[in-house]
Model the fold of this input.
Amino acid sequence: MNIKYRADIDGLRAIAVILVIFFHLDNRLIPSGFIGVDIFFVISGFLISLIIKTSLLQGHFSFGDFYIRRLWRLQPLYLFVLVAVLVISGIFYLPSDYLDITNSEKYASAFLSNKYFARATTSYAAQDALFLPLLHTWSLAIEWQWYLFLPFVLYFLHKINHKEKINNFYFIVFITIISFSLVLVYQKDQPKNYYYFSTRIFEFMLGACVAYLPVKVIINQRVNSVISLIALGVIFWIAAQKDVIAGYPNFNTLYVCLSVALIIYTGQHGSIIQKVLSLKPIVIIGLLSYSLYLWHWPLFAIARYIGVFNTEIQKGLFLALTFLLSIFSYLLIEKPFRRKRLNFKYSITLLFVIPILLALGLNALNEKYHGFGVRLGQNYVNLENKLNQFDYPNRGNCMNFQASDPDKMCHIGKVGSQKKAFLLGDSHANHFWGFMDILGKDAELDVYAQATSSCITIPNIYLYDWSNHKNTVYQRCYDQTAKYYQIIKHNRFDYVIFGQVWNNYASNHVINKIGDKRTVEASRQRVEKSMREALDIIVATGAKPVFIKTVYSMPSGFMTCFYENAKLRKDFADNNCNPKNYKGEGNTWMNQLFAKLKQDYPSLIIIDPKDVQCDKDTCLTDIEGVPVYRDVGHITDYASTIFGMMYINKMGNPFKENQ
Done:
């Protein structure tokens, strides 16, 4: 099998990895640099298809040999990085986060991490993805899924068409067109479709199209240069755009991949871009691209997690460390192991089966021992014990109607009492479980609790272009809200209690129907009308409506500040991560609306947890060294429960006073 080495392909790899690294370093530098992964996919489609095509035509293609070469080319360094991540994150990551690490290791070792991260993150570039050191393995999982799929397709096409002398190029083009149609089909499943293998097939297939072109037309070099310059310009232009990631992959992906295919094709016949990409410094970066890709994200993610990735100097140091590690791993792992060869059985066992079994075993142990909190020292163990004092294992299941048996799983307070309440809202209703459990027990009130994430649960409105629902309505919110009002109408509740991030919905995202004018003022009018409809329905059933206001929002950098004590084995200090700048909520539009509704609906009860969380210019961010916040938007079960106790002591129990 003789395939001519092309230095410009390595140069193209250099462009891809530089785009990705600088996007991850600081997305203000290259707002859409994630398209570098698409460049890798097209290159892979071209090279792997060319290798298989050449072997088939020469009559010595072997599935075993193909997979042995791929395993020894990719797995040694990949497995080394997995182990390094496991060790380094084991030093710094908190137990719940370390559980995420070993869980992602399990999927990464089985080439299924794209499926895992589709479930585990809200989107690829979301805040909750920044600290996941194996997030970047989603693309390698897709690469391996491609390797499992492609050889059999090309082998099948070769066998059925070889005798008929039919050129496989047209079948490849047909598959490419069909596979791009899957992108359009899965647009409804944003943003998870970013990770789907099915939405990425066309990218590899465009590379395969170049490999299978039937006639290599010799184009004038000047024309070649113009085409390749335009193609590279398109890539850089899209990389520089903001908000490209919304709905990605999409037509922007197609433009990038077509441009890469054109650069590869024109490079076969010589062009100015081919010459530039073949320059030695660029080629060297391309040769290091696999190591650079594998190392950069774990280093950046762990540094962010520890809190040492904030200044330009810190980022520069980790960028330099990335290059240093990549040079060593290329010379000491990549190059030597490329030449290693064991037979298929031993290769698959050593590089695939054993790593999966070890990852499964380690993850099972980690789950059994709850993330091995003892790693972080006795101070952290004491903190964890306090957090576990008040734990509601069913709380997370009572979101989005996920509970298998809500009548058993989703009741708090004095369960079985004749007095009944319904707690509903967005995820803030869910984080008030401890608060309402304490008030419910004290007032002998059975509280049935349900919630829908990021949803204002008031009737006959839609949230449009909201959160991940780009240019469409949040249908689940509307449908589940309708269920809530059926529950209210068909049950005899004494109280209906709302927990919401109220001010989030005072924006321009509320409509009654598709096509409604969207302004902040119009949205607020719709919210007020809908809240009055909700109150009318509740009052008509004989129940008392209750609004729970939001807690004091987590100060910027709180989690990094607070848990730095655990990560760096320091003592915990009380409330030392909270800036003393609380000035109260002020007279917000939502507070004005609450006052108006209270006047018009005298039975309305308004509860403000800040009455106990905040005092003068300071709000509690930890309680006796235990954090108030579970994440950027939610409080812990411990804080929720303690706030309930504090509220009764300071303000009394509103469910007793309003009987």
